[in-house]
Amino acid sequence: MHSDFIIIGMYLVLMFAAGIFFSRNIKNTADYFLAARSVPWFWIMGAVWATNIGFLHGYLAHGGAAYEWGLIQANFEWFQGPFGYILTGLFFIAFYWRAGIFTVPHFLERRYGSGLRVIYSLAWLIIFVVTIAAELYLGGMFLKNLLHIPFWPTVFVLTAVVGTYTLLGGLGAAIMMEFVQFVIMMLGTIPLLFILLHFIGGFTGLKDILLSQWGVSAQYFTVLPDIHHPYGPGPWIILGQCFVVTIGWCAGHQSMVQRNLGARSLYDAKLGYVVAAIPKTLGAFLYVVPMIAAPIFFAQRGIFVEKADAAYGKLILNLLPSGMLGLFIAGLVSAGLSSIGSVLNSSSTMVIKDIYERFLVKGKSDHHYFIAGRIATFGIIVVSLLLVPVVLKVYLIMWLEQTLIAMVLGPFMGVLVLAIFWRRTNTPGSLVGFLTGGAFAIFLQQGLGIKVFFQISWWSFVVTFLVTMIVSLYTKPPRKEKVEGLIWESDFRAQLGKVLEQRAESNGIKVKEVPEIKIKKPPFYLNLKYWATVILLIQVVLLLFFG
Amino acid sequence: MKKKFALMGFLGFLIFAQNISAQERFIDVRQMMADELTSVKASVANQDWMKAKESFQEAKTIWLNEIKPLVVEGVKTNEQFQEYFNRIGEVEKNLDDLDLLLADHKVQEIESKANAIIWAISHHPRGFDVPQPRYSIWDWIFGLGIGIGFCIFAFYFGLYLRRSYYHRYKKQGE
Lengths: 547, 174
Hints:
The complex is a heterodimer of chains A (547) and B (174).
Chain A (H helix, E strand, L loop, with lengths): L1 H21 L6 H6 L6 H12 L2 H15 L10 H20 L4 H9 L1 H34 L3 H39 L1 H10 L1 H12 L20 H19 L1 H8 L4 H10 L1 H11 L1 H13 L9 H9 L4 H37 L5 H28 L3 H25 L5 H21 L5 H21 L6 H4 L8 H15 L21 H19 L1
Helix pairs in contact in A: 1-8, 1-17, 3-8, 3-12, 3-13, 3-17, 4-7, 4-15, 4-17, 5-11, 5-13, 5-14, 5-24, 6-7, 7-8, 7-17, 7-18, 7-19, 8-17, 8-18, 9-10, 9-15, 11-19, 11-21, 12-17, 13-24, 17-18, 19-20, 19-21, 20-21
Chain B lengths: L1 H44 L3 H26 L7 H5 L1 H17 L2 H15 L15 H37 L1
């Protein structure tokens, strides 16, 4: 156990030092919020995945849900997660790039006006603050239960490490740290699956014990259960989760998108997002499959499990040898820190770019907004810490966060799809549609008591879509110049050229030197279409095998 | 009016806090019982039969005085207790068996019996009890409808995107 403490301590000190090291040379808002637009594709791949996977959306809460409901939880990692990554990478990222924006709400404002920008920013800020508090709570509880160390000092140490590099270094430091954490997560946590399957007798042994000997429902072993399943009816998973929530998450989550806006070129941004689907697919083997095998281990070894959320910690504590446990915990803490760091950075970007600079204090120097960004980061850390005791009392954290997200992502997807593909969509239509869709989601959940959040997302998407269309048709169409460059019918290359020029100038490069304007054909091993095809084929195989 | 709201808030907090503390108590007592049963296994491994029997009696007392009453009362108002209520018979039978095994000093069987009791008071995955798959005609209609519909949509939409893209750049070059 002592060796585990030493490994974890060394890891935290290393993260702290690396964070300060990566925070050098941050001078302006483009450095702070968009990492000087210099990030290559492989860093984006690691950062996007590390952003996505934390204590909450990954190891602990998803692992707990996998223990509770079985292989169905892998649908977040297989076919629909990668589908969302690929679609966003190939399609939506280009629109954001062409629009030359800092944030997703900024895109909504360019297309629909400031009203939607404010509503969307505020909704996400609430989600982000709850997410940070929930991540800190889960991390603190996890380490407390596992290592018997006090809760609050643990939370403060985690906050200090992640807060320091995010506050000082902005997006650049966050991305670099996320890539390092991505490597530690992969190396540290993948041995669990092999050790556990070896203990049980492989995947065949696992299936045999659960289905034949214990008589467990076959639905515990399927990714797409029948329509009566209480947690995730198959058809609703496809409609609500795959087509609305996942794509909305990939294309509308500021933390995910911001990593791509900091890329050194549009191609890097697209490729980084597409290949991030590979670690996403592997994620199921890190925290879903081990948790399905966990009940056998607990029953055979006589290990008490009080609730599903605690199962992951109990598993690693009782299965992994000393030393390896420390490395594993370092991997898990990496997951938590990377998620907290990215959400923290994105929250401060939205506070400054979407609210402070846009509405409260206009026309100040770049340095002013840069300092304000750091103050905002600190403020969000404080608010999140204050929220931890509240989250502490809410047992169903995952439910709370998913409900909030379902209320936002359905309406967001409705207005985003129309923004890009229907020139006629206008400001009143989008505003009324978005608010009606959000209100309808609340009605479905509170009024009709629908608990499956995929269903809520789907219907709120449909309502938003229809209301936006109807109101737009009965009100004035948007001016042609307002939508130019933001819809599918725009002149892509001319628009991209303009944006690249602006980006280059803001980075102090003369326009004629900008390399991205010359579009080179990538080598075959970096071809987006090949990668996308291979990844989708892997999903088909997984679905045929486990579906 | 303000006083009414404050009073309602306070009552709500009390009910909420009471509920949480009951749940925490339920976790604590089960953990205590599991610890005593683990102690039984360790003592048997060390051939300390006296200590093993003491720990067993402790575990049984916790079961009878703490856990069972909580489960029997809790199931009336909270469905979370249902799984434990369903396993009361299993726990009691295994406790009786373990008592006999300890008297007979059967080392091998004691461990598996103690493990079975610990597992019975643990939380079992809810997915275990989901009914077997009942894929109806609606699943197929719905599933195939979405699948085939999406493929048709993706094909034609892809064609539209391709056509409009080349149409635009051809125009630009002219």
